[in-house]
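Notebook entry, structure prediction.
Reason for the run: the old model in the group folder had no record of what sequence produced it. Starting over properly, with the input documented here first.
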Amino acid sequence: MRLRSRLALACVTGLTADVTARVHRATWTCSRDNRPSRLLAWTAGFRLAREHVHHVAGPGAVNNPSGFGAAS
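New structure, fully documented this time:
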């Protein structure tokens, strides 16, 4: 595991512990295609609850499926 990965895991673990100590529930949200983020979440103890699908309409919907950024 690279140093950067260990630092990210340490940060997520610390933040999750703080959220839990405040009697809240930590959640993780990322794109289905964001493999590094999903792997970090899994390694930190998060488990998949559900996957969301976003639908986009209008200019750029076909050329820019994410719906973010300027329309093509």
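Summary: The two ends are 39 Å apart (CA to CA).
The old model has been moved to the deprecated folder.
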